Amino acid sequence: MTVGNRRMAFLVLTGAGVIAAMLLSWRYSHVSPAAARHDPYEAATDVPRELIGYQEENTVKVDVPEPLGVAVGPADRIYVAGSNAIDVFHPNGAKLRRVSTTCSARCIAVGEDGMIFLGAGGAVEVYSETGEFLARWPGLDERSVIASINLRKDDICVADAGARVVLVYGVAGNLKRRIGEKDESLRTEGFVVPSPYFDAAVAPDGMLRAANPGRHRVETYGPEGSLAGWWGAPGFGHAGFSGCCNPAQFAIAFDGRFITCEKGKLRRVKEYDSEGRFVCYVASTEALGPGTLPLDVAVDVRGRVILLDSADKVLRIFVRTRRAG
Amino acid sequence: MQRLNKTCCAGLVAVLAMLYALPAESLERFPPPDFESGFVFPEVTKPGPRPQLLEYLDVSVLIGALSLAAYLGIRKRSRTGLAVLGVFSLAYFGLWRRGCICPVGAIQNVALSLSDGGYVLPLSVAAFFFLPLFFALLFGRVFCSSVCPLGAIQDVVVLKPLRLPMWLEHSLGVLPYLYLGTAVVVTMATGRFMICRLDPYVGFFRLSGRLAMLITGGILLVAGVFVGRIYCRFICPYGAILRIFSIVSKWHVRIGPRDCVACTLCEDACPYNAILKPSGESAPGGIAGRALLARLIILLPLLMLAGYIHGKRLGPVLSKMHPRVRLAEQLWVEEERNARVRSDQTLAFIEQGGVPKELFGEALLLKSKNESWGRLLGLWAGAVTGLKLISLSLRRRREGYTPDRAKCVSCGRCFSSCPQHRAERRGLLPVERSVPDGS
Amino acid sequence: MPDDERRLTRRELLHSAVRGAALVGAGAALGVFSGRGSAGEYVWQIDPDKCMQCGRCATECVLSPSAVKCVHAFAMCGYCEFCTGYFEPELNGLNTGAENLLCPTGALQRSFVEDPYYKYVIDEDLCMGCARCAKGCRMFGNGSLFMQIRHDRCLNCNQCSIAAACPAGAVMRVPADSPYMLRGGDAAPE
């Protein structure tokens, strides 16, 4: 009987040992995926409060389908362009009217007389104030992707992300200049546009400013198209432009200040002075909240920054809370 | 403060990870730079999977190995042959084919193809599932003997087998049926393959795997030195099906080549407790035995009923294993707490444009379905327990020593313990060529 | 003795009946399964549009290193100098010192094409499938770096252990004759 008992004890002990070892190994051998993961972008999202120089004054719901472009028109009215429609808002955020169009607009500019210019695919479409179709300016070639339109006096700046060139049209649709193509005599190095985000505008000093997102800078072009200078540098710090290709959008205020928008994980909006020195944040990544699309930006005469958040379908209107300079 | 920052950052990370659902599409059409240096895009290499032809080669090898195992076990009565074939199978199906696909795991593919209309059972997988079953109906568990790589790896380590007490043997013997039912229900209810996830030996075939699984497998192998084929006897769900088929098989291996003379020499030859002794004078049961049997037959539906009633409680367990239900519960908690920090699961769900309301509805439906699956499993468990008790109370008259057809894995270890077998091998008796044990 | 004979016969009869039924049943089932159309094999693959680059592919695969590798769609790449899949966000200057690189194993390698473009290629023998580069590219760039299961390495387990762990449900069975889900291009095998 002792032999039997010893055998039983051995068996029971073995069994218990087997089960205990298995349970222990299952409990402790699991690799925590969180530990294996690594987020190098965490540090860059931290913005000190004193660097934020604006405050959100108003948030306006937008119900245009697929709102992608925003512009400020006569009397500081706000125009939001989307699929087959444009909504016009009073500066206080009240909706004034809807203009029907026949295209899915990606970007918009509005003249002092109320003429509406839309970028749709590779072409520019022109509508009257009341939404009457006036003209269609076809793109340069089949690569054309119009990423932004800006307008100052008679110059309509069209940034073509596909052809990687800025086109300056007259109001009648006459192509005045092509700017930014690689040319040694003009000292231009060409635009680096790795993704369909590209912007250009004429500043109050009459010189054209264009984003060169792949080089992370804003470039100044002379009247004949020569590269007159540039500012900006890559970086995840406050003054730098993050990601692969930023700034994605910018707007120039009446006094020459720049409001830049960055796309990507660090969705942030910042102000630079007319020389390109970092001034402050308009909105940090944290403030902008969830969103799946980049932003479009416009500045009105009062200096308010109007952001269009395409994902949340809202206009966010920011006012400056500290004195310029 | 730092913690707050971290939380905020994590929240942002979560929030911003959602960027770019729409631009992704436009990006695919966005033109790459114009290169002036004549740069051409390199090809994206696409190394293909294993050719289909090789899958059919596996099926042919399976058929060959099964036939050879049947021949070696029943006709040739060669333990050495079976051992060599076992090593071959271990090398081919185990080390070379890395254990996939195997008939044990194929149970789940069959179950999945029944529950998931989108999954069509591949032909080779169907062959791997059904061929050993056909062979079991004809020749007994020849698949277990020397074709199954899981069996083979255990068979080679049986060095000092101990005899388990019968009560332990019988109670553990119910586990494979319960495991089979559980695995099928889990697959059909949740799409998860628990047999594969809990396969203790496949890590050795791949020479890598989760540490927990390797440790478990290692412990089972060491324990297997003393308790032969632990997995086959007390766990393997495919073995559960094979057992039943083996009981009714046309032919089966025998201990000795001729009629048993009850010399008792084979009594300790089987490391798997699979040799039945002659019933002697004690059987059959008589009046008392019949009364017990009658009671057990009445007990069977009661057990099944109890299983059906209590099986409902397995619903939440199944739901916990279901990825969609888990996602819904995680999302629910996060919505309730208005969490800024989202888990990867819910983040992905939102990123993919999921609608929480629909998910919650789906989860509720799944939960009630899982209760039905739980009841089914309870019913099965009741039936298995009841039938096991009934089978224990059945006593049959046996003249000599015979293999227990359910438990016997046809390994051939008992052959040489039979003096008649040895005599034939030494030429002292003419080789018996009569039809082997058939029923 | 006659009693004995009868009992044996009864059992035998029962067994052959069960056996016959099982043979017919299993045969019919096999017939049904093989008759369900041309059932090709399945392999596992990652849907890059669902993938969220969480990094579990590197740790959950039964293989070490993982059979999941980063794949580069060259036609989608921006060829950026400042590649967010290549560089750490906090740079100590735009140089290729190891401390500046995201890839922990040096598998993502770059070469100069022409000003200002750089070509990025993945050395699959070094890649461990951590998806850091794919995450950087997806977050800030075009998403031309993405994760795929490489079938010259994958063991095609009956159930992929990455699939069980994937938070996005991005790992799925796909027909073996179109085993890749590439971004910006076709998915046919070579």
Please describe what this structure looks like:
The complex is a heterotrimer of chains A (325), B (439) and C (190). In chain A, the strands form six sheets. A four-stranded antiparallel beta sheet of chain A has the order 1-24-23-22, with no helix packed on it. Chain A has a four-stranded antiparallel beta sheet with strand order 2-3-4-5, with no helix packed on it. In chain A, strands 6-7-8-9 form a four-stranded antiparallel beta sheet, with no helix packed on it. In chain A, a hairpin with a 5-residue loop joins strand 16 and strand 17 (227-231). By secondary structure, chain A is mainly beta. Chain A has helices at residues 2-28, 33-36, 285-288; strands at 54-61, 69-72, 78-81, 83-89, 95-104, 107-110, 116-120, 123-127, 133-137, 146-152, 155-160, 165-169, 175-179, 200-202, 208-212, 217-221, 227-231, 249-252, 258-261, 269-272, 278-283, 295-299, 305-309, 314-320. The model of chain A is unreliable at 33-37 (pLDDT under 50). Chain B is mostly helical and 439 residues long. Chain B has 21 helices and two strands. Chain B has a two-stranded antiparallel sheet with strand order 1-2. In chain B, helix 3 packs parallel to helix 6, helix 16 (286-310) runs antiparallel to helix 20 (356-393) and helix 17 (314-321) packs across helix 20 (356-393). Chain B is globular, with a radius of gyration of 28 Å. Mean pLDDT of chain B is 87; it is low at 1-24. With 190 residues, chain C is α+β, with helices and mostly antiparallel strands. Chain C contains four helices and six strands; from the N terminus they run H-E-H-E-E-E-H-E-H-E. Chain C has helices spanning 2-35, 56-60, 132-140, 161-165; strands at 42-46, 68-72, 108-114, 117-122, 145-149, 171-175. A two-stranded antiparallel ribbon of chain C has the order 1-6. In chain C, strands 2-5 form a two-stranded antiparallel ribbon. In chain C, strand 3 and strand 4 form a beta hairpin. At the B-C interface, helix 2, helix 5, helix 6 and helix 19 of B face helix 1 and strand 4 of C.
